[in-house]
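The aim of this short unit is practical: by the end, you should be able to scan a pair of folded records and say something sensible about each. We start with the first protein, listed as its amino acid sequence and then its structure tokens.
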Amino acid sequence: MMLSLWDYRRRVFALYDAVRAGPGDAGTWSEWVEGRDRLFGTHPQSPLASAAQATFPGLAYFDHDPCLVFDVTVEDTEPVTAEVAHSGEGTTRLIRFGRARFTVEGEACALSLYWLDSYGGGIFLAFRDATSGDETYSGGRYLLDTVKGADLGHTGRTVRLDFNYAYHPSCVHDPRWSCPLAPPENWLDVAIRAGERLPWQDGERTSMSAVAEATQPLTGGSRSEEQAEYETAYYRATPPSPRSDEAQRTPSTQRGAVQSPRRAWSEGLLRLSTRSGITPSSLRPGPDSRLCSPSVEAGRVGGRPYEAAPATRSPQPSPTLSSNPSSTAAGPPAHTRVNSGR
């Protein structure tokens, strides 16, 4: 298995070597697309389950757009440590080190660049945009993940951001993967219609809100009331510190139950989400919010290829920004495979 993973990663690195060596046109991009399809469809370390590989139709992409290619100068920022939530269990610790600014259709945009605070390190850039939760995965897409080969090149302080190479994390293709979500600093209001998209076609489901409606039906109360309750509970509430695990009685659990405050908070949100069917893909935190985490359900694709996964899972804790690099990240449980190789 490890030799197979080694081979997979070597092939991914080779794909990006060809991208950096090429002229940066649609032809270079098409070869990258074809190479990814070969890996997904045939390699034993594909993010797809083996059964899904047998009927794999190829990944879906927006048309190549040369207007969404930017060579940007990275501005230094104060180093800040972020514990970024996963699509499944666990978090990933990132260190923000720079900011890249560019303009899309006249709108000023900025994305933070992060360093993976783990063995091997690497540059990591994930983002969420106006297509997220509809045309693309609600948890965002990746553009740079250099430790795994996703490297579009740089010269000095100038970094290439070519959004035609934006891609979905592995958790979109199979629920066994647990992948970091886009940090809230990298939520863009503009639509980035380039790179990988969800595979809905005309005549099929064209909106992830339709998928959420079909797979998580509302069982009580109006949607607007539930949305307001969810937003209040999830986005504006402050979760108890994970260090305050002393047993306490809390109003969010059954009377008489004794739990840690953080567990009670998490289980209360799970009950709310299960009852309402609400996922927060379309919600944005208010100006006074302490929490802001994208939906981990509304845009998921798993099980068989490109079918919405009906499973409901507890909303993940939001990314917690801290200037203390010694803060620890919770690891994944035994049943979850962290996206360490794709």
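Turning to the second protein, read its sequence before its tokens, just as you did above.
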Amino acid sequence: MSHHDKGWVLILGSSSGFGAACSKALAAAGFDIFGVHLDRAGAMPRVNALVEEIAATGAQVKFWNKNVARDDVRLEVIAGIAETLTAQKPALGGLNLADENNRDAALTILSEALKEHNGALKAMLHSVAFGSLQPFVSDNLKEQTSRKQMEMTLDVMANSMVYWVQDLARVRLLDRGSKVFSMTSAGSRRAWYGYGPVSAAKAALEAHTRQLARELGPRGILVNCFEAGVTDTPAMRMIPGADVIKAEALRRNPGERLTTPEDIANTFVALMDPRVHWISGTTVRVDGGEDTL
């Protein structure tokens, strides 16, 4: 371990927006960072600069440029975490990780490899923003949300969080004292044009959070959502009518500004204090009071 002595945090969606801000803040606070992101080649100079900035704090950092929604990627990343923690490549014996029939065998091998590292992940953040932004109903079928788009959005932005927690808990990387966070929004209970699939995913994410908190509570693992106020991130800019949403949020926010990724990051760092161990199954609003009006 580096001179950072607080342990590792896994950030899903680590290269921009909330994920990048949290990666930097947690590294500055003494945590080492694992990150998974999905970026095209043109974005890699920016991602590499972020990795260098994190490393400059003295933190260990390892990023994977992979699709977090894929089952084989999840196992590959867990194997990579095991290799980093044990300085030895897990003996997966050439298992095809893309074959669902091999999942149990792979997790059994990884559990054995990680048996001295229970709870090595002090936290996981699911901050994955990739989904359909089309209306549910349109006279032009090509413009309305399809079954494939709906299922993809729910899988990537909500269900994938459950699958990561399942496997990380199975190999005991998440264990007593670990904390799981995800990113929801006020859109989970509002109707913004074109936001329907993402709204459904955010509502599902909150339901998943409550259920995981119930099931993981006996293991001493906390599970919560962050609900950021309206924030000017790359994902926000993709929402139809984003400028109107931002202007309205700015008008009614008592703090007279929009939320920033750093607001979430600072809250994350504060909640990593080991004395904070009795908040679970809830949504933590970080919005300066925006949602009160």
